[in-house]
What we know:
By secondary structure, chain A is an all-beta fold. Chain A is about 0% helix and about 45% strand. Chain A has no helices and 9 strands. In chain A, the strands form 2 sheets. In chain A, strands 1, 3, 4, 7, 8 and 9 form a 6-stranded mixed β-sheet that branches. A 3-stranded antiparallel β-sheet of chain A has the order 2-6-5, with no helix packed on it. Chain A is globular. Chain B has no helices and 11 strands. In chain B, the strands form 2 sheets. In chain B, strands 2, 4, 5, 6, 9, 10 and 11 form a 7-stranded mixed β-sheet that branches. The radius of gyration of chain B is 14 Å and the shape is globular. The model of chain B has no long low-confidence stretch (mean pLDDT about 95). At the A-B interface, strand 3, strand 7 and strand 8 of A face strand 5 and strand 10 of B.
Amino acid sequence: QSVLTQPPSASGTPGQRVTISCSGSSSNIESNTVNWYQQLPGTAPKLLIYSNNQRPSGVPDRFSGSKSGTSASLAISGLQSEDEADYYCAAWDDSLNVYVFGTGTRVTVL
Amino acid sequence: EVQLVESGGGLVQPGGSLKLSCAASGFTFSGSALHWVRQASGKGLEWVGRIRSKTTTYATTYAASVRGRFTISRDDSKNTAFLQMNSLKTEDTAVYYCARRGLNYAFDIWGQGTMVTVSS
Lengths: 110, 120
């Protein structure tokens, strides 16, 4: 049972903006940085956003992250068909002393 | 090329054991913490545990669901990490990934995964 809650699904048409929320608590999101992972169908996860809002080299700037208090968000602007994937937020939890992933959000491009 | 490659997955009976390997190349393995993450079919990602580097005394931490049954180790001379899984249960059936921890607990390098099936 995950301690980070995400909506199960999100969708948009090409070019639209989609936002995914990630709700946690004072022991994880509020205390530590949030990372986001993208998992394309049948592949291993890939780091998408680290340290709340930083993009690794090669990640398009249409992906952006933010954090406020016990929640974080991932935004995809200018949605493209290749963005169809599962997205997970994650953070270290100081109380549980474990790394926690969000429940995951499947993004569909209509 | 920077990469992690898992191996050792397979079919095992409930109560059995299996040891997974994670071979690293293209980066300084000895200075990196390694994590294991699993994913049951159609489910989300679940963190399994981690092993830190020599500078932090190879400390290990585990998820509650595997604590006492799984053991993570590493051999820096062979650039390889291991996940020893004992007393396996059907609910341990999953694809197991190893991942390198980068800045701020971001897993910046992932292996391709290895499938573990626990079934009689």
